């Protein structure tokens, strides 16, 4: 899968990239919300992993903007797991809300499941 990861935490991005590249996925990194939109417009992605809280544009804003033109699968990565936050992410257009901190192995399982749905 061709995956865009948008998260302002460099260490988390590195962990996700290293883990998913080992599984054969191609990853592109975005350091904030605006960068995510620019990368999304320039590439062709099968999946977006988007952090909730990012500078310059929140994950919610990114999802809303992406949803204006695309049905790409979107997973929101977030430490904000209260019901109202999960609802906001789903209403914006997130397909899944994945709570932080998380096991990279659980993320791999979710991505394999999503990859299977697309084939």
Automatic annotation (TrEMBL):
Keyword match Transcription: yes
BP-aspect Gene Ontology terms: phosphorelay signal transduction system
Protein's UniProt keywords contain DNA repair: no
Pfam families, A to Z: Response_reg
TM region(s), chain numbering: none
Response regulatory domain ranges (all copies): 2-115
Keywords noted in UniProt: DNA-binding, Kinase, Phosphoprotein, Transcription, Transcription regulation, Transferase, Two-component regulatory system
GO molecular function, one term: DNA binding
Positions where 4-aspartylphosphate occurs in the chain: 51
PANTHER family: TWO-COMPONENT RESPONSE REGULATOR, TWO-COMPONENT RESPONSE REGULATOR ARR22
Identification of the protein by name: Histidine kinase
Organism, as annotated: Pseudobacillus wudalianchiensis
Lineage of the organism: Bacteria, Bacillati, Bacillota, Bacilli, Bacillales
């Amino acid at each position: 899968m061709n995956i865009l990861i948008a998260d302002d935490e460099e260490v988390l991005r590195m962990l996700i990239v290293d883990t998913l590249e080992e599984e054969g996925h191609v990853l592109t990194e975005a350091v904030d919300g605006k960068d995510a939109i620019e990368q999304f417009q320039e590439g062709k992605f099968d999946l977006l992993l988007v952090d909730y809280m990012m500078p310059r544009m929140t994950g919610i804003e990114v999802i809303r903007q992406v949803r204006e033109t695309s049905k790409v699968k979107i997973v929101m990565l977030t430490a904000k797991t209260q019901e109202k936050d999960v609802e906001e992410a789903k209403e914006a257009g997130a397909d899944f809300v994945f709570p932080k901190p998380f096991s990279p192995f659980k993320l791999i399982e979710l991505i394999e499941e999503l990859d299977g749905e697309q084939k």
